[in-house]
Specification:
Layout: E1 12-24, E2 29-41, E3 44-54, E4 57-66, H1 68-73, E5 79-87, E6 90-91, H2 92-95, H3 116-126, E7 128-141, E8 144-156, E9 159-169, E10 172-181, E11 187-200, H4 201-207, E12 224-236, E13 241-242
Parallel strand pairs: 5-7, 6-7
Antiparallel strand pairs: 1-2, 2-3, 3-4, 4-5, 7-8, 8-9, 9-10, 10-11, 11-12, 12-13
Length: 243
């Protein structure tokens, strides 16, 4: 009801899925071995357990969604989500492949009915308020490889925050917090506060692709490093720092 801005219906149920498979074509993401058990009513959606592989990366999700009924029925509402994310091994570049933009291709003026589900998911992403705890035993992104990654991810109002993140990297310990703004742009403002303890400096520089510069390279470094980092920069869609 656009005047009342409310939903007065009643909803109550359970959802069970065994060995499902979904292909999210717009993002080139294939979800396989999907097993899920979810309870829901007017006020909340309780995710008892969702396990799956996304582009061959195993994931288990648990948590709570609120505000999902108003999101579907009342314009402007946001979905609030609290989740736990666990994985024994997660390759971010594999799970979220970089999308290639085709040159010379004009955008379609009409909506393809077959893509409506993808558009709903994109809309959900834009209106999502997310708080997620992480526990990943092995995390990688291209040259970056770490172990025992824990922390929190906060996503709201086109801003992504990483808080209280801890991991083993380059033979040492890294603790950090970071934030990215204006996520819909190709280049985003980025801040990082980190503490690095007893890391192998050559492996550390290699993990970050020598910080996109060639004056000081990993193959010309040796020893171990302890450092406090306070960084303000810009980062692109490929998670690389713009020098």
């Amino acid at each position: 009801d656009n005047k009342k801005k409310s939903y007065e219906g009643k909803i109550n149920g359970k959802f069970n899925l065994t060995e499902g498979k979904v292909e999210y074509v717009a993002r080139k993401m294939i979800f396989e071995k999907v097993n899920a058990f979810v309870k829901f009513d007017n006020n909340k959606c309780q995710i008892e357990n969702i396990s799956f592989t996304v582009n061959k990366n195993p994931v288990v999700l648990k948590g709570l969604l609120t505000g999902y009924v108003p999101f579907l029925t009342v314009p402007g509402n946001r979905v609030k989500t609290a989740l736990s994310f666990t994985s024994p091994k997660f390759d971010m570049a594999q799970a979220f492949p970089k999308l290639k933009v085709k040159k010379g291709v004009k955008k379609e003026k009409t909506i393809d009915k077959k893509r409506r589900v993808s558009k709903i998911i994109d809309e959900l992403y834009r209106k999502l308020e997310l708080e997620m705890t992480l526990d990943v035993k092995q995390f990688s992104h291209k040259k970056f490889k770490s172990e025992n990654l824990t922390g929190k991810i906060l996503l709201s109002n086109d801003r992504l925050q990483l808080k209280e993140v801890k991991m083993k990297l380059a033979g040492g310990q890294v603790n950090f917090s970071a934030s990215m703004n204006q996520l819909q742009r190709k280049v985003n403002p980025f801040t990082l506060n980190a503490k690095v303890q007893n890391a192998d400096i050559s492996n550390f520089f290699y993990s970050f692709n020598n910080f996109n510069q060639s004056a000081i390279r990993h193959d010309n470094l040796s020893g171990r490093v302890n450092v406090d980092v306070n960084l303000r920069a810009s980062i692109n869609n490929d998670l690389a720092v713009v020098t």
